[in-house]
Structures are given as C-alpha cells and as structure tokens.
Amino acid sequence: MESKSGIFELITPDLGDTDKIELVHWNSKLGDSVQPGQEVLELVTDKACFPMESPVHGRLTQIIKEKGSIVRKGDVLGILELLITE
Fold it and tell me: Lipoyl-binding domain: from which residue to which, for each copy (predicted)?
C-alpha cells in the first residue's frame, strides 16, 4: 500500500443568481478530520441556506474565509489536506 498526500480546496459553488453569499458558520475547526458527506460549513443567500459537504476524507488545515465573510462563486473558502491510499 502506498500513501500519497495532497490538498483539496473548498470552493464556493454556483448557488444561482445571487449578489450576496455569506459564509455563516464553520462546522469544523482547524485540525479537524472530515469524512466525505460531512457538513463542513454553511453558506446563506437571500433565498436559502446551503450546507457545504466535504467530497473527500481529509483534515482542515486552513480557513481562508472567516465566518461572516461575503464570498463569490469560485472563491476558495478553506483547504483540506487529504490522504489517498492506493
């Protein structure tokens, strides 16, 4: 078995036609491990709340956008360090 490490960027998804997307809550802290499907943060628009799930198994190593930040589609919100086992 070979292990490889890498990073995964958590990026603001396309949430439709909206001018304001706010990052309202980080459900994970720096250093926390996350599993695929685990809710990592919450984004809110003027129309709805959007939980953002991790698509990978990793560890939150960097928070780029803090709670309360106004973000746009494509903004990097945080960095996950991942471990791939082959």
Answer: 10-79
